[in-house]
Amino acid sequence: MAAASEATSERAMMLMEMFDDDNNYTYHADTDDETDDEIIIENIDRSINEGLFIAASLCQPKRKKPTRIRDYVERTVQEYCEVEFHQHFRMHRADFEVLCNWIGPLLPKERTISLEKKMLATLWFLGNQESFRGIGDRFNLSKGSLRRVIHLICRTLASHQKKWIKWPSLAEMHENASQFQARAGFPGVIGALDGTHVQITAPSQHRDSFVNRKKDISIQMQVICNKSLLFLDVCAGYPGSVHDARVFRNSSICKYLQDNPLPPAFHLLGDSAYQLTNTVLVPFRDNGHLTDSEKKYNRAHSSTRVEIERAIGLLKGKFRKLKFVDMQIVEDIPVIMVAACVLHNFIILNRGIDEDEIITVDDVYNYQDEGEDRPASSGIRKRLEIARALP
Fold it and tell me: Which residues contact 29 (CB under 8 A, 6 or more apart)?
């Protein structure tokens, strides 16, 4: 016991020599109380462990703050000339200011991120195929903040689509028909109808439902446009495997037209994927035995309906995110699609059509059937009358 006591006292003395100056411990060398020595050693051991822990923590490399571009919106964007601003954000600076003045009051008040930065980041997202990380670095936003901003702006645009995407009044129907007829002589056309596909990342559930006829994974968007390439109606969200005719049959515009039929002289033009009705006129199926009037009808039909292909080409040429949307939450993608259509109309109404941005969209699915349903007798009669009357 005496030997153990001496060893304990000696260890206590050594530890005190190490920590006396810094920790101001008081140790009485003449004590013979073993308990006091053990308590001192325990306290000093604890201090050593705490010191080593602190030292180790200080030696750990600090987590580096992400390096992002600072003041891109505040400085760089302000120095862009008009051409540069349009190239980057798909619209002219004056139109951007009009857009901000309209949408600003519709958004919740927030001081952290400016309205200008929110709108520019969203336009950049829609106009490019850049990743969230790349856009976040450019606009000095975390990926989480950027996603929240894009969701907010696109949701607001989509929820107010009726301000910019409007079904024509009777007077506007007459004007549309006159403009369409001037192209190829096809009478009574108030709009051209078609579906387009937006490729997406394969969803974790119901993947096969999104595989279209080209074996791509996509979401459908049905659009109707006038001669000015303005969208009159948009329906987005059906999986890529759904037939165009079914999308139209289940769309709100189809239900609206059932309750509010078009005047007899007016109609929409669709391709052979749609059912022939009094409302939607499609081409004659070329079986190798078409009459001259039927061939003439098909040429005029194709030449007139080309405006919907141009409208889709302009939409996807301007907002290139619609070529492929890499988002995990499938339900959010139709909102992005409708928001792009709203901006499409906004730009045309404020600035007109930029022909240089129209691209060719490889979106034709070559349906061999003439729609999923049998042609309506009223549609057959109407199509024959127009075919015989064409000059």
Answer: 13
Give phi and psi for 182, each to the nearest 5: -65, -20
pLDDT of amino acid 367: 53
The whole-number pLDDT of residue 40 equals: 59
Q: Which SS3 state, helix, strand or coil, does residue 271 take?
A: coil
Amino acid at 370: E
Q: What is the model's pLDDT at position 373? A: 72
Distances (CA, A) of 70 to 79, 84, 150: 15, 19, 20
For residues 293 and 90, give the distance between their C-alpha atoms in angstroms, rounded to a whole number. Answer: 43
- Give the Cα separation of 127 and 89 in Å (integer): 7
Question: Which residue spans within 276-345 are E strands per DSSP?
Answer: 280-281, 324-325
Cα–Cα distance measured from residue 146 to residue 121, given in angstroms and rounded to the nearest whole number: 8
Whole-angstrom CA distances from 155 to 87, 158, 240, 352 are 24, 5, 22, 25
Q: How many residues does the chain have?
A: 391
What was the pLDDT predicted at 210?
97
Backbone φ, ψ for residue 110 (5° rounding): -155, 135
pLDDT, residue 110, reads 87
Give the β-pairing of 324-325 and 189-200.
Answer: parallel
pLDDT under 70: residue ranges of the chain = 1-66, 363-372
Closest CA to 199 of 240, 159, 227: 240
pLDDT at residue 378, rounded to an integer: 95
- Please tell me the distance from the alpha carbon of residue 289 to that of residue 267, in angstroms, as a whole number: 26
What does the DSSP assignment read for 129-159?
---HHHHHHHHT--HHHHHHHHHHHHHHHHH
Query: Residue written as tokens 């141009």?
Result: 310
Q: What is the pLDDT of residue 27?
A: 39
